[in-house]
């Protein structure tokens, strides 16, 4: 029965866009060579590979406690208890669907960390995705959650310097910030991440997309607060309009209205090239700012 449930969940997440490798994390952990260790920090379980040393495991448990604290600071009561798969080897991470990314989450069920990401910031980032998934309504509600909003909240939760304000200022000064309209869907987000990895376009290898989403969301959250966040997510769960809920929570919402208009007129809108100014674009320092894995 439990194997059947794992297979059913795997199938649903594959339909939702997960790679074949990633859904292996939903199968019994032993099938991927993972072993259980003592659970902590409100997680349903912690599984590690054979390469994990006692020192790494201790640091991981400390990181999990700090990650939970960061999630609670933004979200309040934590509604999820995902299972953590922590890899101390790249072979383990690749086996669970990883590649050049450092971590990924599968709904509100699993979080998978690479050996490059056994830290509180990355775990908090992925845990925030699990909260968004659960609170907004799960798999069927995912298209209604703008990717920049989900990722921006995760950046806010994580407090990772590589996605922070100092990086955003460099992005803005370089004229690299993409418009929110180009970061709405999962496909658009991944395309933007790929394009800004081009050293000719982004020679300093700045985390352009994450810093942009984090900047707009953080500014909005300072006005709307946790109550505003929960109001927006509840509206999505109840089938409401994201842009309307966003405006009601605080700030004037012009960039979000513009992004939503572009999205409605052309659901397949492609990400704009740096320097261009498509309908719905948001430029650093122009107009009132309201917002916008690894």
Computed over alpha carbons, the radius of gyration is: 19 Å
How many domains in all? 2
Q: Tell me which oligomeric state these chains represent.
A: single chain
The spatial strand order of the largest sheet comes to 1-2-3-5-4
Architecture (CATH level 2) name of the largest domain? 2-Layer Sandwich
Unreliable stretches covering 5 or more consecutive residues: 1-18, 265-294
What would you call the shape?
globular
Strand composition percent? 5-15%
Largest pleated sheet: 5 strands, mixed
CATH topology of the largest domain: Zincin-like
Number of helices: 10
The overall average pLDDT, rounded, is 82
CATH class of the largest domain: Alpha Beta
Helix content: 40-55%
- Helix and strand content put the structural class at alpha/beta
In sequence order, what are the helices and strands, one letter per element? Answer: HEEHEHEEHHHHHHH
> For the terminal residues, how far apart are their CA atoms?
34 Å
Explain what the structure shows.
Helix 2 (54-75) links the parallel strand 2 and strand 3 (83-86). By secondary structure, the chain is of the alpha/beta class. 48% of the residues lie in helices and 6% in strands. The two termini are 34 Å apart. Helix 8 packs across helix 9 (242-249). It has ten helices and five strands; from the N terminus they run H-E-E-H-E-H-E-E-H-H-H-H-H-H-H. It folds into two domains: 2-136, Zincin-like (2-Layer Sandwich), CATH 3.30.2010.30; 143-265, no CATH class. The protein has helices spanning 2-15, 54-75, 90-95, 120-136, 147-158, 165-173, 186-195, 208-237, 242-249, 254-265, and strands spanning 35-37, 45-48, 83-86, 103-106, 110-113.
């Amino acid at each position: 029965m439990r194997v059947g449930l794992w297979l059913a969940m795997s199938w649903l997440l594959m339909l939702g866009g997960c790679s074949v490798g990633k859904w292996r994390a939903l199968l019994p952990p032993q099938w991927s060579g993972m072993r259980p260790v003592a659970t902590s920090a409100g997680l349903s379980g912690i599984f590690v590979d054979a390469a994990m040393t006692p020192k790494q495991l201790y640091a991981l448990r400390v990181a999990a406690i700090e990650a939970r604290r960061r999630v609670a600071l933004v979200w309040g009561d934590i509604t999820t208890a995902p299972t953590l798969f922590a890899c101390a080897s790249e072979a383990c991470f690749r086996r669970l669907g990883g590649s050049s990314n450092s971590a990924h989450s599968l709904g509100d069920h699993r979080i998978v960390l690479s050996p490059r990401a056994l830290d509180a910031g990355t775990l908090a980032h992925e845990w925030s995705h699990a909260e968004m998934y659960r609170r907004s309504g799960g798999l069927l509600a995912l298209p209604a959650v703008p990717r920049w909003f989900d990722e921006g909240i995760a950046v806010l939760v994580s407090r990772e310097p590589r996605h922070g304000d100092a990086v955003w200022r460099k992005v803005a000064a370089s004229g690299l910030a993409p418009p929110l309209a180009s970061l709405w869907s999962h496909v658009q987000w991944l395309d933007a991440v790929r394009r800004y990895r081009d050293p000719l376009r982004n020679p300093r290898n700045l985390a352009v997309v994450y810093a942009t989403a984090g900047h707009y969301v953080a500014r909005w959250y300072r006005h709307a607060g946790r109550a505003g966040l929960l109001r927006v997510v509840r509206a999505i769960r109840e089938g409401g309009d994201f842009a309307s809920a966003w405006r009601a929570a605080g700030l004037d919402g012009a960039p979000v209205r513009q992004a939503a208009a572009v999205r409605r007129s052309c659901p397949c809108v492609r990400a704009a090239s740096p320097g261009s100014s498509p309908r719905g674009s948001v430029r650093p320092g122009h107009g009132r700012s309201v917002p916008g894995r690894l």
